[in-house]
Design a protein that fits this description.
By secondary structure, the protein is of the alpha/beta class. It has ten helices and eight strands. β2, α2 and β3 form a beta-alpha-beta unit. α1 packs parallel to α2 and α9 packs antiparallel against α10.
């Protein structure tokens, strides 16, 4: 590795992953030793319900200089846990990855090599052999498709990424309740590179992210990071007004020139259509206002109950 990559911090949010943590730490240490890069592993227990915290403390005890152990007061979510870990990171570069070993630690070398070559602000490791169920693959594809419409111009991303120190310093200034790192990254930089990495089967027995949690994540993204729905309300309002105006002209034309009695059905349809648009708009605006209320009341992004530096 080039001399400018002096030290890296590896931040990993942990949730119910006790059976994989020892193997994860040993493989990371092996990979970093092979390239002679100084590192600090930051394990953030995001309110695990198994014995993950006990395993993390044991790893810290066996590797006091290479590991930082952080325990959240409760489950705050993957990205909030990442931000918590990044606030404790001191490396020149920060690596983020999942706790299930689907991205093998020796693939970190590819991120470092890409950074050496391109000097990018961010390097994403994109899986070249994505091993997921059909339903999860469809979800991933749908998320990317709608992201092109509602979020940034670059919907491609991964939890396996390398970030420069100066970019991380900007990201961690965000203290709102819900954070989504990939979208925030696109707010600050367009200097992003991608590298293909290996994708192994998960070492965990079952997924910690069922469809209901993914759906909640997407819901938070839609309301938290863009004004797409507010613009949609404007469009619906204009469309509804135009349709109502044309319907009104139609009935006036029939009444004036053909002396046709205006029907009850037409009136009911017009009122129902307009009322539905109004109720939908009120609901969407209310959701945005609720989130503004949470921000004004400084609802915490995370809370730490224990730290072992």
């Amino acid at each position: 590795m080039a001399e400018r990559i002096k030290k890296i911090s590896i931040v990993i949010p942990v949730y119910n992953a006790s059976i994989a943590l020892n193997a994860l730490q040993m493989e990371i240490d092996k990979a970093m030793t092979a390239v002679a890069v100084s590192y600090k592993l930051i394990l953030v227990d995001d309110g695990s319900e198994d014995d993950s915290w006990a395993v993390i403390k044991d790893i810290k005890k066996r590797n006091p200089d290479k590991v930082t152990a952080i325990r959240m007061a409760k489950n705050f979510g993957q990205h909030n846990a990442l931000f918590c870990g990044m606030r404790h990171a001191k490396g020149d570069y920060i690596i983020t990855m999942d706790d299930d070993l689907q991205n093998p630690p020796d693939e970190i070398i590819k991120l470092l090599q890409c950074e050496e070559k391109d000097d990018a602000d961010v390097v994403y490791g994109i899986s070249e052999n994505y091993k997921r169920s059909i339903r999860r693959k469809l979800w991933r594809w749908g998320f990317k498709l709608t992201s092109r419409l509602t979020f940034s111009n670059n919907p491609e991303g991964s939890s396996f990424r390398l970030l420069k120190r100066n970019l991380v310093d900007k990201l961690v200034q965000h203290n709102q309740e819900f954070v989504f790192m990939d979208e925030l990254i696109n707010w600050y930089t367009g200097d992003i590179q991608f590298v293909k990495v290996r994708h192994d089967p998960s070492r965990l027995r079952e997924s910690r992210y069922p469809f209901s949690r993914l759906r909640k994540l997407y819901y938070n993204l839609v309301f938290g990071y863009n004004a797409f729905l507010l613009r949609l309300i404007t469009f619906l309002g204009i469309t509804s007004s135009a349709i109502s105006f044309l319907v009104g002209l139609f009935f006036m034309f029939k009444k004036i020139f053909f002396n046709v009695r205006v029907g009850f059905t037409g009136i009911v349809v017009s009122i129902t259509f307009t009322g539905g648009i109004i109720l939908l708009s009120i609901g969407i605006i209310g959701e945005y206002m609720r989130r503004m209320y949470n921000i004004m009341n400084a609802k915490p992004q995370s809370s730490i109950s224990e730290v072992h530096e």
